[in-house]
Amino acid sequence: MKVFITRQIPEAGIRLLRDAGIEFTEHTEKRNLAPEELVAACKAHDALLSVGGNKLDADFLQACRHLKVIALMSAGYDNLDVATAKALGIPVGNTPGVLSNATADTAFLLMLAVSRKAFYMHKRIEKGEWGFFDPTANLGIELNGRTLGVFGLGSIGTALARKCRGAFDMEVIYHNRSRNEAAEKELGARYVSFDELLSQSDVLSVHAALTPQTEGIFNATAFGKMKPTAIFVNAARGSMHQENDLLDALRTHRIWGAGLDVTNPEPMDRNNLLLQMPNVAVLPHIGSATEEARGGMARMAAENIIAGLKGAPLPHPIG
Ligand code: DGY
């Protein structure tokens, strides 16, 4: 039994595969595989451990219907046609939960960095622009006691809300597909409509899954309903916000600032105008990039591969 791994993964996952006697091929080149390369590689293997955004759509799945299991090393599965995989009888799994803290930390870092223009200040020092102390310059805004709005209060959104309650005593409101009663009880989180989330949040942080319903949902209309003092944070998927609309909202002071760990496309062009704005902080999709989270994700993906190749139920199935 052989598994194809689309990128080099942490040793924790490799060790599990080795211990289980599973052969593997790791695509170690630092580049994305073209769709036809992925199909060709999968044809020579029995299972796929997929890292990154390779499109695993209906065409791919039809071509690779022999696969005994597909294990994503990610929480998000917007790149995979789950319905077709299920119809073809291919078990599919992902790695939720283990990256929640790391991703929430990233959102927390972004909101704080934006509120104090930290990335921009760093750039100014590098350019030799640290001048005399001016009490009217470099002013940010404080997060203490403000309202955190979470779009998608699952495990990442809840981890962020917990941090914001503890660190800044923030009030938590949220909008979700369904009510999260546990978070309401633990954090006093209040369910609100999407419009209320937009109009009441001081920091609006996106943690929902990318679906046809959420794609592009943060557009000019949405930004137009936010407070002029609001900070928009996205550590989920870049396609949920319309980048030109965000740029306009920032330029016209419709909103105060933005922190992005995800962009559309990725990587972001180095000349992107957002990178020049004082109240913007951008990171290169590092939400889950900690030793702990990535090690855990690799382990979970390997566990799914091992179970799938044995014909056993996946320990971390999608859906
Ligand atoms: C996820 O797990 O979905 C992260 O965005 C890493 O891809």
Automatic annotation (TrEMBL):
One Gene Ontology term of the molecular function aspect: oxidoreductase activity
Domain of life of the source: Bacteria
D-isomer specific 2-hydroxyacid dehydrogenase NAD-binding domain residues: 109-287
Keywords: Oxidoreductase
EC number(s) on file: 1.1.1.-
Gene3D superfamilies for the chain: NAD(P)-binding Rossmann-like Domain (3.40.50.720)
D-isomer specific 2-hydroxyacid dehydrogenase catalytic domain mapped to chain residues: 3-318
InterPro entries found in the cross-reference section: D-isomer_2-hydroxyacid_DH, D-isomer_2_OHA_DH_cat_dom, D-isomer_DH_CS1, D-isomer_DH_NAD-bd, NAD(P)-bd_dom_sf
Stated family: Belongs to the D-isomer specific 2-hydroxyacid dehydrogenase family.
PANTHER family, A to Z: 2-HYDROXYACID DEHYDROGENASE-RELATED, GLYOXYLATE_HYDROXYPYRUVATE REDUCTASE B
Name by which UniProt lists this protein: D-glycerate dehydrogenase
Species of the source: Chitinophaga caseinilytica
Lineage: Bacteria, Pseudomonadati, Bacteroidota, Chitinophagia, Chitinophagales
